[in-house]
């Protein structure tokens, strides 16, 4: 884990009603981490466009924000991904769309493609706002996975920088690991015992990871670990929603294949129903 | 190892009790088995064979505890169709096939099949089955056998039959019709008369006894032939040798045809639905609150069905009415099911010729009554209070079942429900997009309680996901079910959640449901809304005469009178008397602050599902001053002496031989009970009227008869209670 997590933060910008909010969120993030902000716009450069971007960025200029605006035409997905690679972007910020009349958020098809193919970490914002909304509770996955350690560390780093009060590490335990089906009182007792055992095991594993986190990051924070028995990927999103988390931190998925989209799992669930802001750590 | 030994000893100790309840159950199973088989146009003995095979196999291999298996009401319609289209021997083949499918379903853990059907559709289907039974048998009951094409036609013919019966000229037919009417009367009024001696023998057996007695009366005393027309008597029952030599060979020739498989599917579907509903209902009645292993039971029922089919019997299902009787008579484990089967074997061995003395009309009266129970107006009324749209589902299922058939009926019910859900939510995508998503999250919070959150929608389509999670929670825990992320919750789910709430409550846990209020206001949610609003009491000022008298008594004894219904009567739950009964509410309460006595009318129910009987009674509750041991005191009669034979203990009080002889005293802690029953207390009991008195350590429950008491009786009861309380405080 690199100590300065995100050196360069990228954001794709288009002229939508959310533009100001998106830029504000990205700029705040960049300031918070002391990183450089790259605005990527898909399309021809023009005076007018630059002016609008600068207008929205001006309040942050005084706070010494280091930024760059990039204009490039072409296929949006390709442009954003290639520019991100070119500029060595560590974190790509993408705004989600809100369904009309519903309190549900979803990713547009472009955003979804970018998320799947990006080589850097991705932050999906469900409700970008112009004013700062404090982030209080982070939920991070504690899957048994080599990438988990990094995800957890990043969660604590981000939490430390944003001043969150509480971090919950969620261990999703696959129902299949509880090898007993509940049929009657006896099997119920058995499955309860097995679950308790799995719980203890998972909590011990998470504790190990937590011990490696620099103590600075965990200062003034409530740390909770919560085992959940359920479908991987899906239940953590559900939990984040129930626990009213402000940010969900997830591992980047292993390589996606065609079948992963047909039979969604892990991150794909979250992409179809964004429960809250999601940070996917690469 | 030790627990195993003690459970074995417990099993042996409970054996006499189970034998007794097995006997009582077999008394119903015999006439009912004959009747159900005849209603399905199978040979009468087929029903008894079903019960015997079912009782033996399911009691050995089954996964439930106090259920009784045998031929089911629900299957009458299906078997009837199968026999008329396929013929008897091919029907046996279909029965065997459906048994095999049931076994497979059990192994695939699909015993929960019935969970996928909306409850109003199931109600509609059951009502249709009830009407099919009632419609067809009603004519036979009145000695006017007719043959019509489908269920509705039989119902339409009912007025005609009534008219024909009034104009009967043939004496034999008149007697036959009278026997039917009399038997129906016995069925209807049996549950209303709560006399423990009368209740010892189930109503169907009374019918058998009365009709066999009638036949002997003519033969032995009047030396005349039985006046009931021979056409309306039970055809000859083969004796045991004949049964064994005449075992029919199932005919598998039609295995390649569509009607065969549609019969198999219908048999399997109805058998599994009926069994499942019954198992669920019986689990609610179980005194020991055990959880049945549904899949294991389905496997056993399937296997029993296969054997039954080969031996000339019908589908074996779990039956609610007989199971309820089993629980009420002290059945505590599967051995009662076995005993019921063994007693049936004994009956067939000894009395198979006597059974031909029973008029067919009398037997059909039993079926008409069961049919009526399935389709009673109460069911419609209850569904109406839940919501008008439920009524649409109910009637859609009912009519299609009657007009076309069972499978079409249940499919129509499914579609009706789904379409209504779409219309109510105005969204098809809500269901289509989310149906396969694992929409339920359950986790254990730090304080040990469970949190269950449901997303998107929750209806009969995906209730199994919620059910799986709820099943996996130990019932002693506190659970919160949160529907606030849910756009739609249907009636089937609410009903099932309610069942779980009851189950958890019984075992010391608790389920709280939250998030429905948001739903109700935001989407004008009909089911949730109706379920949440407590039933409004429409008791106005006009009190009945009895209520006015109660007010006067209240003034006399310086008590306050509250006529309104009260639903939470938790102080009654610990009493042994209520172990197999469910308190609905108490009303007409006489009580006072700081007074330990409380007199009230109570409504409680016995049995579940279609075997549910609602009883009203008047009782007195006294909060006892200090720890009085738990005991039950009753007048000792013939029945109590029988109980002693069946393994219940009667505690004798030294030096009071008369008291010990006249009273039946029961309880766990013999020593404490003996110290409580001082000379003074014993003398008090000896010199006063008999009451049923029960202590649950916290309080005493006193009542006389299982009916609402008259004003005079109430005064006597109150007076008795007050004096008893005085003595108890002195002891």
* Subunit organisation of the chains: heterodimer
Overall mean confidence score, pLDDT of chain B = 82
Relative helix content of chain A: 40-55%
Q: The biggest beta sheet of chain A, please? A: 10 strands, mixed
Query: Termini of chain A, distance in Å?
Result: 11 Å
**Level of helix content of chain B?**
55-70%
Task: Spell out the helices and strands of chain A N to C.
Answer: EHEHEHEEEHEEHEHEHEHHE
Order of strands across the biggest sheet of chain A? 3-2-1-4-7-12-11-8-9-10
- Outline the biggest β-sheet of chain B: 8 strands, antiparallel
> What is the alpha-carbon Rg of chain B in Å?
27 Å
Provide structural commentary:
The complex is a heterodimer of chains A (282) and B (731). Chain A is of the alpha/beta class and 282 residues long. Chain A is built from 9 helices and 12 strands. Chain A has a 10-stranded mixed sheet with strand order 3-2-1-4-7-12-11-8-9-10, with helices on both faces. Chain A has a two-stranded antiparallel sheet with strand order 5-6. The longest helix of chain A has 27 residues, at 185-211. Chain B has 4 domains: 17-386, no CATH class; 388-426, no CATH class; 432-532, Transcription Regulator spoIIAA (2-Layer Sandwich); 545-730, no CATH class. In chain B, the strands form 3 sheets. An 8-stranded antiparallel sheet of chain B has the order 7-8-9-10-14-13-11-12. Chain B has a 4-stranded mixed sheet with strand order 3-4-5-6. The longest helix of chain B is centred in the N-terminal third of the chain and has 38 residues, at 2-39. Chain B starts with a helix and ends with a helix. With 731 residues, chain B is of the alpha+beta class. Classes of the chains: A alpha/beta (282), B alpha+beta (731). The A-B interface holds A 181-185, 187-189, 191-192, 199, 224, 226-231, 234-235, 238-239, 241-242, 269 and B 63, 109, 290-296, 437-438, 440-444, 446, 451, 453, 455, 471-472, 474, 482, 485.
């Amino acid at each position: 884990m690199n100590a300065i997590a995100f050196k360069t933060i990228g954001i794709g910008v288009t002229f939508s009603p959310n533009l100001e909010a998106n830029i504000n969120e990205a700029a705040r993030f960049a300031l918070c981490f002391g990183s450089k902000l790259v605005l990527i716009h898909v399309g021809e450069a023009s005076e007018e466009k630059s002016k609008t971007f600068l207008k929205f960025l001006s309040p942050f200029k005084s706070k010494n924000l280091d930024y760059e605006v990039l204009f490039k035409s072409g296929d949006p997905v390709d442009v954003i991904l290639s520019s991100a690679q070119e500029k060595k972007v560590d974190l790509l910020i993408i705004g989600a769309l809100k369904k009309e009349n519903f309190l549900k958020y979803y990713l547009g098809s472009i955003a979804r493609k970018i998320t799947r193919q990006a080589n850097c970490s991705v932050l999906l914002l469900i409700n970008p706002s112009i004013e700062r909304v404090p982030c209080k509770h982070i939920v991070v996955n504690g899957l048994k996975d080599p990438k988990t350690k990094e995800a957890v560390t990043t969660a604590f780093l981000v939490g430390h920088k944003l001043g969150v009060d509480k971090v919950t590490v969620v261990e999703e335990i696959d129902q299949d690991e509880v090898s007993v089906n509940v049929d009657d009182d006896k099997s119920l007792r058995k499955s309860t015992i097995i679950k308790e055992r799995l719980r203890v095991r998972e909590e011990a594993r998470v504790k190990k990871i937590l011990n490696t986190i620099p103590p600075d990051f965990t200062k003034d924070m409530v740390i909770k670990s919560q085992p959940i028995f359920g479908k991987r990927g899906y239940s953590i999103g559900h939990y984040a929603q129930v626990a009213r988390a402000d940010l969900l931190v997830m591992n980047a998925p292993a390589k996606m294949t065609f079948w992963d989209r047909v039979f969604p799992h892990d991150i794909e669930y979250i992409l179809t129903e964004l429960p809250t802001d999601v940070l996917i750590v690469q | 190892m030790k627990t195993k030994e003690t459970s074995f000893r417990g099993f042996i100790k409970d054996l006499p009790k189970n034998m007794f309840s097995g006997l009582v159950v077999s008394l119903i199973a015999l006439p009912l088995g004959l009747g159900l088989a005849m209603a399905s146009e199978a040979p009468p003995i087929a029903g008894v064979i079903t019960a015997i095979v079912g009782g033996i196999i399911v009691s050995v291999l089954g996964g439930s505890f106090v259920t009784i298996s045998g031929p089911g009401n629900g299957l009458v319609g299906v078997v009837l169709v199968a026999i008329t289209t396929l013929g008897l021997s091919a029907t046996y083949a279909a029965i065997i096939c459906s048994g095999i499918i049931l076994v497979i379903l059990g192994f695939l853990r699909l015993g929960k099949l019935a969970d996928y059907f909306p409850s109003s559709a199931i109600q509609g289907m059951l009502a249709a089955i009830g009407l099919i039974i009632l419609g067809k048998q009603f004519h036979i009951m009145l000695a006017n056998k007719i043959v019509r094409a489908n269920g509705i036609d039989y119902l339409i013919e009912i007025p005609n039959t009534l008219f024909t019966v009034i104009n009967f000229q043939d004496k034999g037919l008149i007697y036959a019709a009278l026997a039917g009417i009399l038997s129906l009367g016995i069925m209807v009024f049996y549950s209303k008369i709560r006399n423990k001696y009368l209740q010892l023998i189930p109503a169907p057996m009374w019918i058998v006894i009365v009709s066999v007695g009638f036949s002997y009366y003519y033969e032995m005393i009047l030396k005349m032939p039985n006046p009931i027309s021979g056409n309306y008597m039970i055809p000859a029952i083969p004796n045991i040798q004949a049964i064994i030599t005449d075992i029919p060979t199932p005919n598998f020739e039609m295995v390649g045809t569509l009607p065969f498989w549609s019969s198999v599917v219908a048999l399997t579907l109805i058998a599994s639905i009926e069994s499942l509903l019954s198992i669920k209902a019986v689990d609610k009645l179980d005194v020991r609150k055990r959880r049945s292993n549904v899949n294991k039971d389905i496997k056993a029922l399937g296997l029993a069905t296969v054997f039954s089919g080969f031996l000339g019997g019908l589908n074996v299902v779990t039956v609610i009415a007989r199971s309820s009787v089993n629980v009420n008579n002290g059945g505590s484990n599967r051995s009662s099911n076995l005993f019921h089967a063994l007693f049936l074997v004994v009956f067939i061995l000894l009395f198979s010729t006597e059974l031909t003395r029973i008029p067919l009309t009398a037997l059909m009266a039993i079926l008409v009554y069961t049919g009526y129970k399935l389709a009673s107006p109460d069911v419609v009324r209850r569904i109406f209070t839940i919501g008008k749209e439920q009524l649409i589902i109910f009637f859609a299922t009912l009519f299609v079942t009657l007009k076309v058939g069972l499978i079409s009926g249940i499919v129509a019910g499914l579609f009706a429900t789904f379409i209504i859900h779409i219309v109510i939510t105005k969204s098809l995508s809500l269901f289509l997009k989310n149906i396969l998503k694992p929409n339920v999250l359950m986790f254990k919070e730090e304080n040990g309680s469970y949190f269950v959150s449901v997303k998107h929608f929750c209806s009969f389509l995906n209730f199994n996901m919620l059910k799986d999670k709820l099943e996996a929670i130990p019932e002693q825990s506190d659970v919160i079910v949160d529907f606030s992320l849910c756009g739609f919750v249907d009636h089937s789910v609410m009903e099932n959640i309610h069942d779980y709430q009851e189950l958890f409550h019984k075992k010391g846990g608790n389920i709280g449901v939250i998030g429905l209020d948001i739903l109700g206001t935001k989407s004008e949610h009909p089911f949730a809304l109706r379920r949440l609003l407590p039933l409004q009491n429409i008791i106005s000022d006009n009190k009945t005469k009895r209520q006015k008298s109660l007010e006067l008594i209240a003034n006399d004894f310086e008590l306050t009178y509250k006529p309104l219904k009260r639903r939470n009567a938790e102080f009654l739950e610990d009493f042994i008397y209520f172990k197999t009964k469910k308190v609905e509410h108490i009303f007409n309460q006489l009580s006072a602050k700081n007074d330990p006595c409380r007199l009230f009318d109570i409504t409680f129910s016995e049995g579940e599902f279609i075997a549910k009987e609602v009883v009203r009674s008047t009782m007195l509750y006294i909060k006892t001053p200090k720890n009085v041991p738990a005991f039950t005191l009753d007048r000792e009669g013939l029945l109590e002496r029988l109980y002693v034979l069946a393994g219940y203990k009667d505690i004798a009080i030294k030096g009071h031989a008369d008291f010990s002889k006249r009273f039946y005293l029961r309880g766990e802690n013999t020593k404490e009970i003996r110290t409580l029953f001082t000379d003074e207390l014993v003398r008090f009991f000896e010199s006063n009227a008999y009451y049923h008195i029960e202590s649950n350590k916290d309080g005493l429950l006193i009542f006389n008869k299982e009916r609402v008491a008259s004003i005079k009786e109430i005064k006597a009861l109150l007076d008795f209670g007050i004096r008893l309380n005085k003595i108890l405080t002195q002891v």
